[in-house]
């Protein structure tokens, strides 16, 4: 893969970025020290070596003449992994708190666009103690699933197998300059079909948009350009117990937990409920199994009104399940959530000039992003040090103050909350409210006939 055009959705993310709204994904991973394990410098060297072996991380973006407005991934011939992998020594104190604090600050900084768009930070405290790794990948480089596939190359189990990030993308044979009448007709027919699909999706997005957003003001406050990271850990078995009791999916339960957590948070703040329930954008992967790392972003999204105004936790869960079933029946190409599908239908020039304008329209579409990022099910380690916790982080859209990402690992759901630091200075309170909401849901759905034991 020496060169490769950016897919339309990748190009949209590349041009959506601004200084106050960097478009990178992230993950903060905590590792336990291993007996006789590597020192901080040893882990840093290991990170650098493994990152340098992931071919996708050597690619940078370059503009092209054709197609007009397009860009291409090219191998950075002057690639130096040490410009991307850094070591930060944290002050004494609670390591997890200090690491989350510095991770929020590091997430504020946009990636340097002339370089391959990624960074890794090794965060260490006292010698021989636990350490953390912060990974930043530009959204143009990968969606959530592909980010996991690329970033997983640093782990012992995957780096040793040498199966992640080294596959070559399938090349597309060049088109001839001269074509016959049948090829011209086929090309025109294909463009008309694409235009028809784009118009249908676009009309659906417009119909679902709100010209007068009246959601939670805390979630749509003016941007300060600052970032804060909050974390929460939910027991996966508790989530599954609730699911088994009421039906639906584990993701339905987690979305209901988010709705209830937001309601609790508003109540503790002494704020009134919003005139309209906040809208959540729930991404849905459309990536096919086995697709190569260079295949670009592949997702759409569902739009969900979080039932924050409903005082009954069980009723909130029922409302979420009903709404998600309706979304799945309609498909991911309808509603404001289909904006990603629409972006995939537009030509490069439209992204170059339209993305900055479209970025400002996010507030009319949704109030908060809630996404799930799948992780490998097997135990992972780095230099023999076991991975204990991993918190995914999603970017903030312009005009929004909170993004929530969740990953399941080692029997627990790790929740990463990224917020505008000035708009949500009490993010830790919201993180705590999520755990309290799950406990209440578990209590409400517990029944002797369901064999759900007390905790």
From TrEMBL:
Indicate the segments forming the O-acyltransferase WSD1-like N-terminal domain, all copies: 6-253
Q: Reaction catalysed?
A: an acyl-CoA + a 1,2-diacyl-sn-glycerol = a triacyl-sn-glycerol + CoA
> Which Pfam family is one of this chain's hits?
WS_DGAT_C
E.C. numbers: 2.3.1.20
InterPro entries, A to Z: Acyl_transf_WS/DGAT, O-acyltransferase_WSD1-like, O-acyltransferase_WSD1_C, O-acyltransferase_WSD1_N
Region spans: Disordered: 277-296
Q: In which pathway is this protein known to take part? A: Lipid metabolism; Glycerolipid metabolism; triacylglycerol biosynthesis
Top-level taxon of origin: Bacteria
Q: Where is the O-acyltransferase WSD1 C-terminal domain?
A: 296-441
Recite the UniProt keywords alphabetically.
Answer: Acyltransferase, Glycerol metabolism, Lipid biosynthesis, Lipid metabolism, Transferase
**Family from the record:** Belongs to the long-chain O-acyltransferase family.
Its name, as the record gives it, is: Diacylglycerol O-acyltransferase
Which organism encodes this protein?
Streptomyces maoxianensis
């Amino acid at each position: 893969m020496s060169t490769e055009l950016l897919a339309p959705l990748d190009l949209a993310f590349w041009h959506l970025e601004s200084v106050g709204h960097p478009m990178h994904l992230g993950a903060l991973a905590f590792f336990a020290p291993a007996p006789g394990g590597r020192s901080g410098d040893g882990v840093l060297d290991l990170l650098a070596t493994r990152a340098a072996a992931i071919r996708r991380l050597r690619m940078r973006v370059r503009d092209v003449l054709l197609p007009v407005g397009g860009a291409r991934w090219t191998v950075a011939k002057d690639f130096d992994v040490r410009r991307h992998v850094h070591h930060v020594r944290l002050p004494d104190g609670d390591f997890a708190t200090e690491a989350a604090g510095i991770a929020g600050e590091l997430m504020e900084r946009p990636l340097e666009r002339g370089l391959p768009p990624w960074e890794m930070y090794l965060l260490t405290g006292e010698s021989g103690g636990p350490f953390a790794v912060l990974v930043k990948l530009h959204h143009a480089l990968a969606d959530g699933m592909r980010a996991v596939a690329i970033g997983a190359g640093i782990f012992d189990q995957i780096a040793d197998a040498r199966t992640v990030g080294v596959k070559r993308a399938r090349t597309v044979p060049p088109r001839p300059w001269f074509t016959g009448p049948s090829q011209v007709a086929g090309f025109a027919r294909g463009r008309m079909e694409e235009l028809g699909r784009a118009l249908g999706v676009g009309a659906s997005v417009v119909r679902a948009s709100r010209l007068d957003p009246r959601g939670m003001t805390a979630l749509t406050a003016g941007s300060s350009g600052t970032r804060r990271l909050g974390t929460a850990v939910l027991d996966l078995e508790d989530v599954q117990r609730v699911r088994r009791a009421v039906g639906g999916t584990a993701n339905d339960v987690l979305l209901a937990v988010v709705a209830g957590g937001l309601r609790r948070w508003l109540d503790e703040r002494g704020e009134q409920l919003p005139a309209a329930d906040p809208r959540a954008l729930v991404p849905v992967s459309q990536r096919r199994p086995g697709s190569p790392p260079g295949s670009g972003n592949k997702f759409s999204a569902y739009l969900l009104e979080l039932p924050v105004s409903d005082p009954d936790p069980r009723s909130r869960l029922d409302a979420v399940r009903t709404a998600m079933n309706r979304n799945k029946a309609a498909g991911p190409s309808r509603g404001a959530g289909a904006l990603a599908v629409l972006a995939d239908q537009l030509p490069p020039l439209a992204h170059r000039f339209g993305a900055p304008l479209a970025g400002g329209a996010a507030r009319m579409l949704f109030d908060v992003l809630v996404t799930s990022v799948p992780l490998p099910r097997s135990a992972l380690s780095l230099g023999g040090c076991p991975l204990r916790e991993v918190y995914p982080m999603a970017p903030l859209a312009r005009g929004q103050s909170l993004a929530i990402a969740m990953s399941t690992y080692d029997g627990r759901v790790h929740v990463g909350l990224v917020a505008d630091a000035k708009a949500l200075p009490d993010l830790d309170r919201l993180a705590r409210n999520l755990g309290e909401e799950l406990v209440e849901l578990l209590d409400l759905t517990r029944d002797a006939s369901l064999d759900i034991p007390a905790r």
